[in-house]
Structures are given as C-alpha cells and as structure tokens.
Amino acid sequence: MTTFWSGWIIVLTALNIVGCWWLIRWTMKKRAGESSEGDVTGHTWDSDLQEYNNPLPRWWLYLFYITLVFAVVYLVLYPGMGTWKGVLGWSSHGSQYEGEMAAASAKYDPIYKQYAAVAIADLATGDEYQDARDMGKRLYLTYCMQCHGSDAGGSRGFPNLTDDDWQYGGSPEAILASIANGRNGIMPAYAHLDETSTGQLAEFVLSLTDRSTDTAGAEAGKAAFIANGCAGCHGADGKGNQLIGAPNLTDAYWLYGASPSMIVKTIKGGRNGVMPAHKELLGDDKVHILAAYTYSLSKK
Ligand code: HEC
Ligand code: HEC
Predict the structure, then answer these.
(1) Cα–Cα distance between 161 and 150 in angstroms, integer?
(2) Which of 40, 229, 259, 283 reaches 20 to 30 Å from 61, CA-CA?
C-alpha cells in the first residue's frame, strides 16, 4: 500500500470515529425552538399517535460510547489504520496462520515421519498401513486432485495414475521421483513438415496399435519416424522411453488422445507436459506417503 492510500484510510477511519462521537453529543443537545424533555414534539401519526421528546435510555447511550472506546482501543492494538501494525504486532499471517501451521506440524509431523521410515511398497499394500494410505488420500485430494482428477483417473494431458501404464515408470522409486522433483515431457514440434509427411507419420503411429488403413502411408511413415528422430526418443519399435517420458505408442493408453487428428496435432505442435515438483512444498515425508498412495492406486 502506498503512503497516500494508507493515510487516506487512516484519515477516513479517524473522521468516522470522531463523527460518531459528535453525532451522539449533537442529538443530546437541546436546541432553541424545540420542545423540552417530556413534552410532545408536535409530530403526529395516524391521527392520534404522538411523538414525545424523551432522552435515550442511559444504558443505550453508554453502549454507543463503549463501542467507540472499543474501536479506538482495537485500532491501537491491532492492524486497521492503514499500514500501522498495531502495538501488539499481531498479523493473520505471522501470528495466526503460521501459528496454526506450527501446531499442526507438531501434531502430524511425527506420524508422517514414522510412515516415511517404511518402504513405499509396504505402505502401499500392508493391511496395517491403511491409516497411512488414508492420509495419502487426503494429501492427494489437497495437492494433486486439481490436475489428476478426484479419482486419479487423469484427463487429456494429465496422466491416469490408476492404470499400469507409466510415462516415467511405475516403480516406487520412479513414482517418488515424479512427485518430488516434478517432470517435464518435451515432445518437439514438427511444424516444418508438410501435411503428407505428418499424415504418414500418424499413419505409422496408428499402425503400432493396428489401426492403420493405409499400408503404403504407414510404410513411408516408418521411414520418416527414423529419419525425423522420433525413434531416438520413442524407440524404433515405438515402445517409448521412461527416462525422458517419451510415451509408449504401441499400447492403448494415450496422454493426448488416440484419434488420428490428435496424433497429427501432437506431431505438428509438439507437447510440453509439466508435473510440478513437490519436494520443497510438502517435504520428504509427505512426498513419501503420497508416493505410497499413488503406488497403491495402480496395484488394485
Ligand atoms: C499442475 C498440475 C499437476 C499437479 C498439481 C500434479 N500433477 Fe502429477 N502430473 C502432471 C502432468 C501434466 C504430468 C505429466 C507430465 C508430462 O507430461 O511429462 C504429471 C505426471 C505425474 C506422474 C508420472 C506419471 C507417469 O505416468 O509416469 C505422477 C506419479 C504424478 N504426476 C503424481 C502426482 C501427485 C501424487 C501429485 C500431488 C502431489 C501431482 N502429481 C500433482 C500434472 C500435475
Ligand atoms: C526429444 C524426444 C522426442 C522426439 C524426437 C519425439 N517425441 Fe513424441 N513425445 C515425446 C515426449 C516426451 C512426449 C510426451 C509429451 C508430454 O509429456 O507432454 C511425446 C508424445 C508423443 C505423442 C503423444 C502420445 C500420447 O500418449 O498421447 C505422440 C503421438 C508422439 N510423441 C509421436 C512422435 C512422433 C511421430 C515423433 C517424430 C515426428 C516424435 N514423437 C518425436 C518425446 C519425443
């Protein structure tokens, strides 16, 4: 906040408080020409309903004063006047949020730590570790659901975590690495290729799952697959390479869609899937529990 806006808020707030004070005093004053206390004011409604000039009850009036004093005391102790932090130095971030986080850490960190000492495969399958998997599920629903879906079934560009097809590997170590360090699949764009070439390449990719309808095209595509370096990443047989996240093109699992038009789109435009790293955000113990939960999903 700039000094100007801070000052603006301070002046407005102070004027309001002083204004309220003045208003109370003003309404209590007797003015010339007014009826005196206890008399009728001369205002009449519904032919016989008359207004009397009676003072506010004392307790009511004191309530007004108390709220004003409360406001002043509050604004001295707590933040409220522009950028003034209040004499207590309280803040929702520092005092409240971090305090609550610290309390939660003190409570749960030992439990996370205890599970982090157990091997991922055991956590994922052992009956005695159901609690750890429940914890993993809650963490999953907080940190992963928005991308991989509430059922971890994924969607276009976001891998399904419940099947047995892994872009980067389904071993406990590979899953842990995916979550901790993140992943970034780079499929280069072949924008320079003409339609015939991309069509033939797509035809070859389709032939890997027995869906090609153009044998000659697929044959030409096979040569282009090697000539354009596709085989360098996806392998000459199209079975992929988990080290760089190049998907297996011979199975029924598609990250970006199985249709010929989606395959052409992938080749022409390239793809760049990003799985964010979670090690810094969550710490090793939670990442370990999340890896066990993810591993358990594919082992059902
Ligand atoms: C911002 C979206 C996003 C979030 C949040 C996210 N992921 Fe991912 N995740 C991705 C994408 C995209 C990929 C695929 C990366 C690629 O295409 O190279 C991926 C890949 C993965 C993989 C590798 C899958 C494979 O087939 O090898 C695992 C495991 C994974 N995520 C687990 C998780 C877990 C557990 C969480 C929660 C801690 C999480 N992800 C949070 C987007 C996300
Ligand atoms: C530098 C390595 C590399 C090269 C070269 C490469 N790819 Fe890829 N390809 C990838 C990666 C990595 C992905 C996954 C992208 C992601 O995770 O976002 C991918 C994704 C794909 C997909 C989508 C798969 C799916 O499941 O939806 C297709 C199809 C594909 N590549 C075909 C090709 C073809 C055809 C060529 C050659 C013209 C080629 N790739 C060249 C690395 C490569």
Answers:
(1) 11
(2) 40
For residue 41, pLDDT beyond 90: no
Q: Whose CA is nearest to atom 41 of ligand 2?
A: 230
Predicted pLDDT of residue 259: 95
Q: How far is the CA of 266 from the centre of ligand 2 (A)?
A: 7
Please list every protein residue whose CB sits less than 6 Å from any atom of ligand 2.
185-188, 190, 201, 205, 228-230, 232-234, 244-247, 249, 254-256, 263, 266-267, 271-273
- CA distances to 232, 237, 255, 286 from 203, rounded to whole Å, are 19, 14, 18, 44
Whole-angstrom distance, CA of residue 112 vs CA of residue 132: 8
Which of 167, 154, 158, 161 lies closest to 233 in space, CA to CA?
Answer: 167
Nearest ligand 2 atom to the CA of 157 is 18
- Averaged pLDDT, 37-66: 86
Q: Whose CA is nearest to atom 37 of ligand 2?
A: 230
* For residue 192, pLDDT beyond 80: yes
pLDDT of residue 20 exceeding 80, the answer is: yes
Residues with CB under 6 A from ligand 1: 143-144, 146-148, 157-159, 161, 166-168, 175, 178-179, 183-185, 245, 273-276, 278, 290, 294
Shortest-distance atom of ligand 1 to CA 282: 38
Confidence of residue 159 (pLDDT cuts 50, 70, 90): very high
Name the band, by pLDDT with cuts 50, 70 and 90, for residue 93. Answer: confident
